[in-house]
Amino acid sequence: MLKTPLNAIPPTLAALSDYESLARERLTTQSWAYISGGSADELSMKRNREKLDDLCLLPRTLCDVAKGETKTTLLGQQFEHPIISGPVAYQAL
Q: N or C: fewer beta carbons within 10 Å in the chain?
C-alpha cells in the first residue's frame, strides 16, 4: 500500500537524499525501479551523480526555518517540491 503525498517537510529530512526513502514508499515497485535505475551500463547515471556530488550549497545560518517550505515557481507554475524529473519513457509511467 502506497503512502499519501507529503504536505509538509518532515522534521527527519536533512538532505535531498533523505527524500529517497520517502519516494520509495510513495511509488509503485515498478515505477521506483524504473526511475531509480539507469540504462545499459548506467554510465550517464554515474557521471551525473559524480557531478552533482561536486556541487556545494552555501547554507544560510541563523535564518528562521520554523516555517520552511520547498515551494517554488517555474515558468509561472507553482510547485510544492522543486524536484522534477524529465520525460521518462514517453510519460508512460
A: N
